[in-house]
Write a structure and sequence with these properties.
- The complex is a heterotetramer of chains A (124), B (619), C (331) and D (192).
- Chain A is mostly helical and 124 residues long.
- Chain A is 78% helix and 0% strand.
- Chain A is elongated.
- The mean pLDDT of chain B is 94.
- In chain B, β3 and β4 form a beta hairpin.
- Chain B is 65% helix and 2% strand.
- The N terminus of chain D is likely disordered.
- Chain D has six helices and no strands.
- Helix content of chain D is 77%, strand content 0%.
- The chains are: A mainly alpha (124), B mainly alpha (619), C alpha+beta (331), D mainly alpha (192).
Chain lengths: 124, 619, 331, 192
């Protein structure tokens, strides 16, 4: 792969999952909130399927980002993260992004499990 | 050789500061601004500490009435507000960050030097503003979290909460300026060759903190704006009678408030990750993981806010979202803890005062972190929320994990700032006193919380088994104070009696150790280039004297490729003036004289025009 | 939830001190299945925490012992001695282990334990009690019964009770650590938890959310009585006042704030006094409920509980005595 | 003294990064306002509550369109400034300024009229409605001030510093226009 493409891939790996985490969280929480209050309930958006859709989409992108980072790590075996840029920088952020996306994905999984296990709007 | 001295004199001429008080008033030098921040925050730290001691004395024994309820409420409110907004954030970012960032990045100053000065003067103004409220007997009294409706006009008719609202906005202007400043400086002012993967971890920490401030503070501002309107105009944001909601305040507040606690702690990580390599003479273990961990802790920290609201009756499903984020926000910290410990082990640790404080910091941070992990369990959180267990948790974090590194950092960078070596033995003794004191002060709080003592009680009954723990805590508080006084006293003594340190007493890894101590006004006579994250250990041939003007290098952002040579602004009288007009605006707002405040605002705009009347020289 | 291994953990210092202390408001002396599962959650997490802390301390001690040697593992040479081994430790102990441990905590606590502590569905219990927070006392009502009392709440033992929490003014928080977790009383909302007591007895509770000047003096008792005793108590509390109040009750201004059910005094600013004599404390557990202390309270309550919403009543000690005697008579 | 030859890359200047920071934090502030709008909306049984009415769709959209259109002259201004064409820059700025002032004037009149009709303290809807709208107008007003200041600066010709200023302020205006679209969208959503 060319350095340019690796670099693009690296930025996707670094930011793709992060953006989806933000989006997934805001939408997920907002959806439940709307569902559980009179004003939002009027629209009658079914909570569970939508939550599933949101969280799974987010998780999917995160897995892609993780995969991208993993690919880069594999592609740049030769270089160390403190050699000369840009390759070193690409590897550096790929390692970072891999960790980040693993954590993001786990958050999404825990959210999903919580959704399956709980009745929407049941006061905790 | 002649050439060298000639160029040095030219640099001197370009960069040297105005003499006297005027020099300090109009300074744009990040080092001087850092020192101004340091002294101001130190004073406010004293104030916050005295407030804490007063409370501990009141609580030493049951049913005491040394302090009345009203005073006590003002005390704990001011203690929280002071320590968070007026000590730790300005100390770590304002003082340490300002002084060190350019030195570590190989820059001659921040990206926006005048804005940097402005942030200090605004900060000073907000500090004065807050403590005037105490002087006039209208100090904020509804807790730093300031929940409505307790803080609404109806239940709190005085000016107390108006001081809180405006003081917080005032202060957050300063923090926002610092944050923007740091992000741009870190992205644009790095020395040639310092690609992001070679940036010192301290700068990553500062970047993370700045990112947090930049995105967290606006929600707080929005929140207090709503409250100010509710109180003074009569809007209905938090008014249940109009389907407003007291929970809206809490959501907006904690959306700021939780990132906030990471903003407090992350710069401390940065200080730790600067001290550890220097005192173990080994590069940080797992550098990329630590770097991303510092960013992740803040980023994920934006998704956990409602774990402060588990008892408010949110739907379980909503709480799960925050529980999940809370669970994973732990991991960046565990990564760092082990990376620090392994660096200790793999290197040759020299347990001087700075490293001692970092070791203590790791212990305290793990203590606080473990109780933090317990809050992942929602029912347990709901059981101990608003008890002394929580106080124990976040004081282990905020005092143990945020303030210990500040003390360590003081000893670590003292030679750089003063050119004198601090005496080590008294420092070590001070460490042990503080370590024992803080644990005696904070550990019993865990037990107190579990056996039922709730927060923010100005007094408590006897017979519930709370007495011994409270008494022990009070003793601990005074021991800690003694330790801190010894620590600072030793620094003062070292300043006058200490031996010359030379540029690099610790054989430190980063660029600040390549320049003389104290650093010259222009920081680097020759702009360095960087081939490693530890440039003082792996020097690279320097770039060039930039002595033809008041200039600095602007890099392209990611890989440290030189983008441009830019002229830097000189000293300016406008920042303090602008801050002064703002102080006027806020004073008038708190008095409810909105028209006069508006006029003051016009003056603010005029100062801005004056500010930009003189353009930095072209290169 | 698995039963906690108290004996093993009792060796630990923190627990040793915990054992000794007074149990009135002790979250670790639980008396209901909710509080018990929360407590055992804590014991398990604390055990784990000591192990974690021990590990870190061990590493720091090791660092101190090895302060003169560099590196462990295959690659002790070079500028990053022991990096490979260190990475393994960081990934193993710093990433994988905590993820697993915290994942387990999350599942046990937030998927299972939470089911016992979350709000019971409306009319899922036979008895509902409504608690209304005031600055700075608790009003207690029994929907379906005229009974109204203050700062003490009686429930039948071993019967699940749905507790509804509301507030008249600012945010308060209802917390009886030995029975269940905290629940906030928030303006415009009704929050609920299940209240259940395994054994008969008196459990201390307290306002858990800062609510102003006298937040410190806003405690209450929960009495778990045998069902028969409870029913008698409820019947007694539902009765109107036994004897009409002295004129003084109106002239001194008591009636402006307090109610005596069955008389013209119907105000609901202060606590309902219909059966005040039957209560064990006054002013939300600030003082004991004896004629002498009630008399003192009437005259100097601002000294006893500064800033509370009741003014000092300007009447002669003799009149105060008369009032106190009357009120104490209302059992 | 060996100077390392380092490649120079056309970079995104610090000044514009600074403006990005302003946009980020301001965007967050307005984001909080908008979140509040929906928080209150979802809690309310009727929206807008009785006695209030959602803003008129047609006029609002037309006005917004006018304002958003000024992104074009602002963009032209920043390009021609970069190209050193002073006259063109001035012209573009003046055109933008006229439209923006017109918009502001109308909105101000409208705003004050509405304030007379239904007051900000009427209920939670008017509270957030006027706060959002007021915040938007404040941003437009500040942008107008910036443009005035810029034109004043440009009287004495272009410098590198002023080119940066033009670019930064153009960005600010693009931000304000996006902001207006979002806020107007939020306020009009009361019709849904």
């Amino acid at each position: 792969m060319t350095v340019k493409r690796l670099s693009r891939l690296q930025w996707f790996g670094l930011f793709g999952g992060a953006v989806m985490l933000a989006a997934g969280h805001i939408l997920g929480i907002g959806l439940t909130y709307a569902e559980c209050n009179v004003g939002g309930a009027r629209w009658g958006i079914p909570n569970d399927p939508w939550e599933m859709a949101i969280l799974l989409t987010a998780a999917f992108v995160m897995v892609l980002a993780a995969a991208a980072s993993a690919t880069i790590i594999a592609q740049t075996q030769g270089t160390s993260y403190d050699d000369d840029p840009p390759l070193s920088r690409i590897r550096f952020f790929a390692i970072a992004a891999l960790l980040a996306n693993v954590l993001f994905t786990i958050i999404m999984i825990l959210d999903l499990v919580g959704n399956v296990f709980n009745v929407v709007c049941r006061q905790g | 050789m002649v050439v060298v001295t000639e160029r040095l004199t030219r640099l001197e001429h370009q960069w040297q500061a105005r003499p006297g008080v005027l020099g300090w008033l109009t300074t744009t030098d990040h080092k001087r601004i850092g020192l101004l921040y340091f002294w101001t925050t130190l004073v406010l730290f004293g104030a916050g500490g005295v407030e804490a001691l007063a409370m501990r004395t009141q609580l030493a024994r049951p049913n005491q009435h040394l302090i009345g309820p009203e005073t006590y409420n003002e005390l704990f409110t001011l203690h929280g507000v002071t320590m968070i907004f007026f000590f730790i954030i300005p100390m770590t970012t304002g003082a340490f960050g300002n002084y060190l960032l350019p030195l570590m990045l190989g820059a001659r100053d921040m990206a926006f030097p005048r804005m940097n000065a402005l942030s200090f003067w605004i900060f000073l103004g907000s500090g004065i503003f807050l403590y005037v409220s105490l002087a006039v007997g209208d100090a904020p009294n509804a807790g730093w979290f300031n929940y409505v409706p307790l803080s609404s006009r109806h239940y709190d008719p005085g000016h107390n909460i108006d001081f809180y609202c405006l003081g917080v906005i005032f202060n957050s202007i300063a923090s926002t300026l610092t944050a923007a400043q740091f992000i741009v400086t870190i992205l644009k002012s790095r020395a040639p060759g310092m690609s992001l993967n070679r940036m010192p971890l301290f700068c990553y920490a500062m970047f993370a903190a700045a990112f947090g401030l930049l995105f967290a503070l606006p929600t707080l501002s929005a929140d207090v704006i709503f409250l100010f309107l509710d109180r003074n105009v009569g809007t209905h944001f938090f008014d249940p009678a109009y389907h407003g909601s007291a929970l809206l305040w809490q959501h907006l507040f904690w959306f700021f408030g939780h990132p906030e606690v990471y903003i407090l702690i992350v710069p401390a990580f940065g200080i730790a990750t600067s001290i550890i390599p220097a005192f173990t003479q080994r590069k940080m273990v797992a550098f990329p993981l630590v770097a991303i961990a510092e960013l992740l802790v803040v980023f994920i920290g934006f998704g956990v806010w409602a774990h402060h609201m588990y008892a408010t009756g949110l739907p379980t499903m909503t709480m799960i979202f925050f529980g999940a984020a809370t669970a994973m926000v732990v991991i960046p910290s565990t990564i760092q803890v082990f990376s620090w410990c392994m660096s200790f082990i793999m290197g040759t640790a020299r347990f001087n005062t700075p490293l001692l404080f970092i070791a203590g910091f790791i212990f305290m941070f793990v203590m606080g972190g473990l109780t933090g992990i317990m809050f992942v369990a929602i029912p347990f959180d709901q059981q101990v929320t608003d008890t002394y267990f929580v106080i124990a948790h976040f004081h282990y974090i905020i005092f143990g994990a945020a303030v210990f590194p500040i003390f360590g950092g003081l000893y670590y960078w003292f030679p750089k700032v003063t050119g004198k070596l601090p005496f080590d033995r008294p420092g070590q003794i001070a460490f042990w006193i503080i370590f024992v004191g803080t644990n005696l002060l904070f550990f019993p709080m865990h037990i107190l919380g579990l056996i039922g003592m709730t927060r923010r009680e100005y007094t408590y009954p006897s017979g519930l088994g709370w007495e011994p723990y409270n008494f022990a805590e009070t003793i601990g508080a005074f021991i800690t104070t003694a330790g801190i006084l010894l620590l600072l006293g030793n620094l003062v003594y070292s300043y006058f009696r200490g031996v010359e340190s030379g540029p690099d007493p610790w054989h430190g890894p980063t660029l600040e150790w390549t320049v003389p101590s104290p650093p010259p006004d222009y920081n680097f006579a020759v702009i360095p280039t960087v081939r490693s994250a530890y440039p003082n250990w792996e020097p690279a041939p320097p770039y060039e004297w930039l002595d033809r003007g008041h200039q600095q290098v602007e890099s392209e952002g990611v890989d440290g490729v030189i983008g441009d040579i830019v002229g830097m602004p000189h000293e300016s009288p406008w920042p303090p003036l602008l801050a002064l007009t703002l102080l006027g605006v806020f004073a008038m707002l708190v008095l409810g004289k909105f028209e006069i405040a508006g006029i003051m605002g016009i003056f603010t705009l005029l100062t801005l025009v004056g500010w930009h009347s003189k353009e930095p020289q072209e290169s | 939830m698995i039963a906690p291994r108290r004996h093993a953990l009792a060796l630990l210092p923190a627990v040793a001190v915990l054992a000794g202390c007074d149990k009135q408001q002790n979250a670790l002396a639980p008396e209901s299945h909710q509080a018990k599962s929360i407590a055992s959650l804590f014991w398990w997490m604390m055990g784990g925490s000591w192990i974690g802390l021990g590990l870190i301390v061990a590493l720091l001690v090791l660092a101190w012992k090895r302060r003169n040697r560099r590196g462990i593992g295959s690659d002790t040479e070079g500028d990053k001695p022991g990096e490979k081994f260190a990475w393994r430790v960081v990934i193993g102990l710093g990433i994988v282990t905590p993820i697993v441990v915290i994942g387990v905590i999350f599942v046990i606590a937030n998927l299972f334990v939470i089911k016992t502590t979350e709000a019971p569905a409306a009319d899922s219990t036979r008895l509902t009690v409504r608690v209304i927070g005031h600055m700075w006392w608790w009003e207690v009502r029994y929907p379906g019964h005229p009974a109204v009392t203050a700062n003490e709440l009686h429930i039948p033992v071993r019967v699940p009770v749905r507790l509804e929490v509301q507030t008249k003014d600012v945010i308060h928080s209802f917390w009886v650590p030995r029975l269940n977790r905290t629940i906030d009383a928030i303006p415009g909302r009704t929050n609920a938890i299940e209240l259940y007591a395994d054994t008969a007895g008196r459990y201390r509770g307290q306002c858990d959310e800062f609510c102003g000047l006298q937040h410190a003096h806003m405690a209450f008792y929960v009495y778990a009585d045998p069902p028969s005793v409870f029913r008698r108590w409820l019947a007694q509390q539902s009765k109107p006042v036994s004897s009409p109040p002295p004129k003084l009750f109106t002239t001194a201004g008591c009636a402006d704030c307090h109610a005596l059910r069955g008389t013209s005094a119907k105000a609901d600013v202060g606590p309902d006094l219909t059966h005040v004599g039957s209560r064990s404390t006054l002013a939300a557990l600030t003082i004991r409920n004896t004629p002498a202390e009630l008399e003192d309270w009437i005259l100097h309550n601002q000294a006893i509980k500064p800033g509370n919403q009741m003014p000092d009543i300007t009447i002669s000690p003799a009149q105060a005595h008369e009032l106190a005697v009357y009120l104490e008579g209302l059992k | 003294m060996t100077a390392v030859p380092a490649p120079r890359r056309v970079a995104f200047p610090a000044g514009l990064w600074g403006m990005l920071m302003v946009i980020a934090t301001e965007g967050m502030l307005l984001g909080a306002f908008i979140a509040t709008y929906f928080y209150l909306r979802f809690k309310a049984p009727v929206w807008p509550p009785h006695g209030d009415h959602a803003p008129p769709i047609a006029t609002t959209l037309i006005l917004t369109a006018c304002l958003v259109a000024t992104s074009a002259p602002m963009a032209i201004a920043s390009w021609s400034a970069a190209a050193g064409e002073l006259a063109k820059t001035r012209l573009a700025l003046v055109i933008a300024l006229i439209v923006q002032c017109g918009y502001l004037a109308y909105e101000f009149k409208d705003f004050s009229d509405e304030l007379h009709k239904s007051n900000i303290v009427h209920d939670q809807y008017t509270s957030i409605y006027y706060t959002l709208l007021g915040a938007d107008h404040a941003h437009v007003f500040f942008g107008v001030l910036l443009n005035l200041w810029l034109l004043g600066k440009l009287v004495t010709g272009l410098t590198r510093y002023r080119v940066r200023a033009v670019q930064a302020i153009a960005w600010y205006w693009h931000f304000v226009n996006v902001l207006t679209i979002v806020i107007v969208g939020t306020l009009l959503s009361a019709h849904a």
